[in-house]
Design a protein that fits this description.
Blueprint (H helix, E strand, L loop, with lengths): L1 E3 L2 E3 L3 E11 L5 E10 L2 E10 L7 H12 L6 E7 L4 H5 L24 H13 L4 E5 L6 E2 L2 E4 L8 H11 L3 E4 L7 H7 L4 E5 L8 H17 L13 E3 L1 E6 L4 E5 L6 E2 L4 E6 L5 E6 L4 E6 L4 E2 L4 E7 L2 E2 L1
Parallel strand pairs: 5-6, 5-7, 7-11, 9-10, 10-12
Antiparallel strand pairs: 1-2, 3-4, 4-6, 8-18, 9-11, 12-21, 13-20, 14-16, 14-19, 15-18, 16-17, 18-20
Helix pairs in contact: 1-6
The structure holds zinc ion.
Zinc ion (ZN) binds next to loops.
C-alpha cells in the first residue's frame, strides 16, 4: 500500500486525496490535491508537482492530462502527484504565497515548524525525497519564455549527470544548466540524492496548449526512459545554455522585439527598440554575446531600467 496524505493505493490501484498542510485564517483545513498511481508491477517512484508558483498553471494542465492516461495495471512503479503546491497563491492567481509573501521555490527543503511556505515545502519535500525521480513543473510565470528544462544542482554536484539525463529524457529541446538559488526543489532534491528537474513550460497567462502538450509528452518520455512502461523512449539531443544575459530598458517607452523566442542571436544583433508614445525611436538595444533569445516581458510598456528580455548564452548540445 502506498499512501500520500489521504490517498492510498495498493499495487494496481489509483487514488486521490488531500495532503494537509495547516489551516486558513478561518480555520478551514488546507489540503493540497494529491494522487497516487501504484503500478501493478514493481519499479521506481516518480514524484511530480505543479503550481509551486501559484500563477504557473501549465503544470496543472499537464497533470490533468497525464493522470487519467496512467493505467496502474500497465505501470511498473509508482507515480506520486501533488497537483497544486502553492495553495494560497493559487486561490488568488498570484505568484507568491500571500500568507508570508514568499516564493515557494525559495523555501525548500522547508521547515515543518516554519512559515506557511516553509511548512508546505516541508510537507511536499517529505514525499518527494522518498522518490527516485522528481519533476517540479514550472513555467516562466506570465512572461513569454521558450519551453525548457532547468537543471539547478550546479555542474559540480555529485548528481549533476543524473539530473542532466533526466532533463534529456524529458526531451523538450532546451536545457538551462545553471546552479539555482538556495531553496529551489531542483537543488534540495539532488542534495538528498534524488535526480530533480524543473521543466519550465513556456510562459503565459492561464494555459498554453502547446506548452501543456510538450509537458505531457515530457512526462511520458520520462516514464518510458525509466522503465515505468515496457517501450523505450528515444533520447533526443538537447540544446543547452549554461548562463543568461538579461537586458533592461535604457529608456522609458514601448518595447518592440526584433527577435522571436528560440531564435539564434549574434553579438550586435538588435534585440529590441524602445519608442515613445508618438512612435519616435528612443533606444535600440543590441546583443552583447551570442546565444538564444530565451525570454521576454509580456507587456510593452517599460520604465528606465525595467526588465525586457533574456538571452541564453554559453550554448552547446548534449
Ligand atoms: Zn515557477
Amino acid at each position: 500500500m502506498t499512501t500520500l496524505g489521504t490517498a492510498s493505493a495498493a499495487p494496481g490501484e489509483f487514488d486521490t486525496g488531500r495532503l494537509e498542510v495547516g489551516e486558513t485564517r478561518d480555520g478551514s483545513t488546507v489540503g493540497l490535491p494529491v494522487a497516487v498511481i501504484n503500478g501493478a508491477r514493481d519499479g521506481q517512484t516518480l514524484y511530480m508537482q505543479a503550481a509551486s508558483d501559484g500563477d504557473e498553471l501549465n503544470g496543472v494542465g499537464v497533470i490533468q492530462q497525464v493522470v487519467p492516461q496512467l493505467d496502474p495495471a500497465e505501470l511498473s512503479g509508482t507515480v506520486l502527484v501533488v497537483g497544486i503546491v502553492n495553495y494560497h497563491a493559487f486561490q488568488i492567481a498570484q505568484h507568491r504565497n500571500p500568507v508570508d509573501d514568499t516564493k515557494m521555490n525559495r523555501a525548500y527543503p522547508g521547515d515543518e515548524n516554519g512559515t506557511s511556505s516553509e511548512r508546505i515545502a516541508a510537507a511536499t519535500f517529505d514525499v518527494a525525497r522518498q522518490a527516485d525521480l522528481i519533476l517540479d513543473l514550472h513555467q516562466g510565470s506570465t512572461s513569454r519564455m521558450i519551453n525548457e528544462v532547468r537543471v539547478r544542482c550546479g555542474r559540480r554536484h555529485r548528481m549533476h549527470r543524473e539530473c542532466l539525463e533526466l532533463a534529456k529524457a524529458f526531451g523538450i529541446g532546451y536545457v538551462l544548466d545553471q546552479k539555482g538559488p538556495d531553496g529551489q526543489l531542483a537543488r534540495a532534491g539532488p542534495d538528498e540524492g534524488v535526480p530533480t528537474i524543473d521543466p519550465e513550460l513556456g510562459g503565459c497567462v492561464g494555459w498554453d496548449d502547446e506548452s501543456i502538450r510538450l509537458g505531457v509528452r515530457g512526462v511520458f518520455n520520462v516514464l518510458r526512459h525509466y522503465d515505468f512502461f515496457d517501450d523505450d523512449a528515444d533520447l533526443q539531443r538537447q540544446t543547452r545554455a549554461k548562463s543568461f544575459d538579461q537586458y533592461g530598458s535604457p529608456a522609458g517607452g514601448l518595447v518592440s522585439f526584433e527577435k522571436e523566442l528560440g531564435t539564434r542571436v549574434s553579438p550586435g544583433d538588435t534585440l529590441f527598440e524602445v519608442t515613445d508614445v508618438f512612435g519616435k525611436l528612443k533606444a535600440r538595444v543590441t546583443a552583447d554575446n551570442s546565444g538564444i533569445f530565451w525570454r521576454s516581458r509580456r507587456l510593452p510598456q517599460v520604465a528606465t531600467g525595467e526588465y525586457v528580455c533574456s538571452v541564453g548564452t554559453n550554448v552547446d548540445t548534449y
